[in-house]
Design a protein that fits this description.
Beta-Lactamase, 24 strands, elongated
């Protein structure tokens, strides 16, 4: 009786060492691999008990009789003919089939191979197959169902053959076709009359004919009594000149050769496309210096792409990517982090990324970034696989480190420069105050007449130069304080209209000398803000000073002030001066930047006035906008909040009265 395909496939895996016994230890089934390892035929072994070829021990080394064995994991010594015993690990499963019990033994050198739960299911299936073979003592083999009265005559069979997409043909050994099916004609385009005019080899592409002839020779020259079979894949020429990839199978039987062909053109095209995509992926990974990896949870080895081998500078044929081998590349500091990376991904079922270092065999340190994704088993709900990429980020890491070091060095140098300027400003202010004070005494002749009026002019020049130098030093000192974040604001309730009128009064003398008219017709009297009085005064002085300085004789400077909504106040200083080129507007608020062109008159100044003005406004959470046109004038608008978030009103001025102007103000140029 012919066995079913289910039964015939029982020994397809020739690498697994396994056997089945009854509850008394008698062998019922033994795999080909196990009988080969023992060195005896399967027929001889089926007459023995398992105890004759294997001894089982607990992990503590205690021998366990086969008849008393229970499901679990054991160590085994496998007896071999004329060789030393082989030490293996073994898993034992117990399966109950009706009133009969069976033990299934899975032998392997790696104790981890049969840890999965699926192994028990495989044990059940193995017993079912052994039952189907009829090898169990006391049981009769299962009978295959009988199917009677099925007869297909030649005409009916031809209909089935013509319905198939496979190519069928009968060919004479001497080199001519007998008959072919419809698919043969349809796919290649030849009629039956065409095919009778030439041999089969003429259907093969010229570049593949030598290969096809070598295969055909095996069946053509085979003895008539033998049935020889060959298979090959090649390009076959269609009648229209195109070619298709056909997988041919030829079998000799007496005077004829039976031919079966299958069109694999689409498969070959897909393979070519797949190869192209894989090549693209490989090239992209080379460019990105990255490779992909995958790891089956519980396995000690990791699957790497070619690029990761290059990153680690190892050869695929000599290096096995296991956790133990990878450990040799890691520093002691990074090793726990990498293991924790995999453990967290499995336990928390989350995607992770980590950066670590490796030291290659050539002692070169490389910095890597690893990203992992989890694959969740739909049946168990647990992570059964991790996959991801490893990228070489050495150049980026070193570049970032250099940038960080350069940034720290630049910040240190800048802080040193700022401290130097601040210290020098303090040192210079002391003698300058003395020079200004003594020159003022001499100019007023407080201790008696000087005698020569010319000396008074010299003394006046000394005083003016000293005051100008002191203003420049004050600007530098203010700028230094702002840059290092040490410019402290003292917020209080300020009447902006009074400050504007005070600044106009201070600038009237200079405006009169320059023949410039100052207008303030649009300044409301009841505009109050919560701000630092000295800073607001400094902003207005700097803006008014610039407006007067760069307005030609006969021009005007206008100051206006208004409330913008409920929480902002705006004041504007506009002039009819020389204006600022559009390209210079974005840079004139930088320290030491000045608008130098033929349009401007030669005026002294440090170039810090607008920079300080802008910083003081930003310290108040305000903003400044400059609109200018050459030869028409400039308009500077400043917006300040009415109240400051987080600021508390000064206890010394809660009644809203304004303080007088102190002597510390400096007009920026």
């Amino acid at each position: 009786m012919a066995q079913s395909r289910f039964v015939q496939n029982i020994d397809t895996d020739h690498e697994i060492l396994r056997c089945v016994t009854d509850t008394e230890g008698r062998l019922i089934y033994i795999s080909p691999a196990l009988s080969w390892s023992v060195g005896q035929s399967r027929n001889d072994l089926m007459k023995l008990d398992l105890s004759r070829i294997a001894r089982l021990y607990t992990p503590e080394g205690v021998e366990v009789p086969i008849e008393n064995i229970k499901p679990g994991f054991y160590d085994a010594a496998l007896e071999r003919m004329e060789r030393d015993p082989q030490l293996l690990s073994v898993r034992v499963d117990s399966v109950q089939r009706g009133e009969s019990g069976f033990c299934i033994f899975w032998f392997d050198q790696d104790g981890q191979r049969f840890l999965q739960d699926e192994t028990w299911e495989r044990s059940e299936r193995l017993v079912e197959r052994v039952e189907a073979l009829g090898e169990i003592r006391g049981q009769k083999p299962k009978q295959a169902p009988r199917i009677e009265n099925i007869n297909i005559d030649d005409s009916e069979l031809r209909h089935f053959i013509n319905l198939s997409n496979e190519l069928f043909g009968v060919y004479r050994r001497e080199g001519s076709f007998v008959r072919v099916n419809y698919a043969f004609n349809r796919l290649l385009g030849y009629t039956d009359q065409d095919l009778r005019k030439f041999p089969f080899i003429h259907l093969i592409h010229p570049e593949d004919q030598a290969f096809a002839k070598s295969k055909m020779k095996l069946v053509i020259d085979a003895p008539l009594e033998n049935e020889t079979r060959v298979a090959f894949e090649c390009r076959s020429i269609c009648k229209d000149g195109h070619f298709k990839w056909i997988e041919w199978v030829l079998k000799s039987a007496e005077d004829h050769i039976y031919i079966v062909g299958r069109d694999v053109t689409d498969i070959r095209n897909q393979e070519v496309e797949l190869d192209f995509r894989e090549q693209q992926l490989s090239e992209a990974q080379k460019i990105g210096r990255m490779g992909h990896w995958s790891w089956d949870v519980g396995n000690r080895e990791i699957d790497w792409s070619h690029q990761i081998y290059r990153i680690f500078d190892v050869k695929e044929t000599q290096f096995k990517p296991s956790f133990e081998n990878i450990d040799a590349f890691l520093s002691k500091k990074d090793l726990p982090d990498l293991y924790q990376f995999f453990q967290k991904a499995v336990l928390e079922k989350r995607d992770y990324n980590i950066e670590f270092r490796i030291i290659r065999a050539d002692k070169e340190t490389r910095y890597l970034r690893c990203e992992g994704r989890c694959h969740i088993n739909e049946k168990t709900g647990q992570v059964d696989k991790l996959f991801g990429i490893i990228q070489d980020i050495t150049e980026r890491t070193l570049h970032e480190r250099q940038l960080h070091e350069a940034k720290e060095a630049a910040e240190g140098a800048y802080a040193s420069k700022t401290r130097f300027l601040a210290n020098m400003s303090h040192e210079l202010r002391t003698p300058l105050n003395a020079i200004i004070g003594f020159s003022e005494m001499m100019q007023r002749q407080l201790l008696g007449p000087i005698g020569n009026a010319k000396y008074l002019d010299y003394v006046a020049g000394i005083r003016e130069s000293g005051e100008h130098l002191l203003d420049l030093i004050n600007d530098i000192l203010d700028m230094s304080k702002i840059e290092v974040g040490k410019y402290d604001l003292e917020f209080e309730n300020v009447n902006l209209a009074k400050i504007i009128r005070l600044v106009i009064h201070m600038m009237q003398g200079r405006a009169h000398e320059s023949e410039v008219r100052i207008l303030s017709d649009h300044v409301a009297d009841d505009v109050h803000i919560y701000a630092d009085r000295r800073a607001v005064m400094q902003v207005l002085l700097n803006l008014m000073s610039n407006a007067v300085k760069f307005t030609p004789p006969g021009g005007t400077v206008e100051v206006s002030c208004e409330r913008k909504g409920g929480d902002m106040v705006s004041f504007t200083v506009s002039d009819t001066g020389v204006g600022i080129p559009k390209s210079k507007i974005p840079i004139i608020t930088r320290p030491f930047e000045q608008v130098a062109s033929a349009l401007t008159r030669p005026h002294e100044g440090s170039g810090l006035g607008l920079a300080i003005t802008k910083d003081l406004i930003e310290l108040h959470n305000g903003d400044m906008k400059i609109v200018s046109k050459v030869n028409e004038g400039t308009q500077v608008s400043v917006s300040l909040p009415v109240a400051q978030a987080g600021a508390s009103e000064s206890s010394s001025n809660k009644d809203g009265n304004d303080k007088g102007l102190d002597s510390g103000y400096a007009i920026g140029y």
